[in-house]
Design goal:
With about 150 residues, this protein is an alpha+beta fold. The protein has helices at about 15-35, 90-110, 120-125; strands spanning about 5-10, 50-55, 60-65, 75-85, 115-120, 130, 135-140, 140-150.
Amino acid sequence: MQEGIKWKIKRFNELSLQELYYILKLRSHVFVVEQNCVYQDVDGKDEKAMHLIGEFNAEIVAYSRLFKPGDYFETASIGRVVVHPDARDKKFGHEMMQKAIAGIEYHYNTKQITISAQLYLKKFYESHDFVQTSEMYLEDDIPHIEMKRG
């Protein structure tokens, strides 16, 4: 019998070495290999972030970073939103966004959130009440837009 996804939020110094390894492996698998984009994923911001981790069948299959206001954007922000390709049919992305928004509200006491979204995910983020606030721009040669919520 399959269980549901289990969510946890941790500070950088609370991550185990194994968790950090599998987080970086997932981010590399999707953002570098799947999207065929050579960029510096380890950007020095992980230490500032809260890390939202989704485990399914004892594997990390979903992840995002949560930032307090001023650490990435003027408002709080969510970044490195990723779901393993083998788990995308389970709709964990929507559940993760709900958990990320709730995590921002709980840990940072704000409803104002800014994201740098890949353009092709615009409708996904709109379904979580984000609104486009910029023209398209390239980030690592991938079309992005700024979106805000709250």
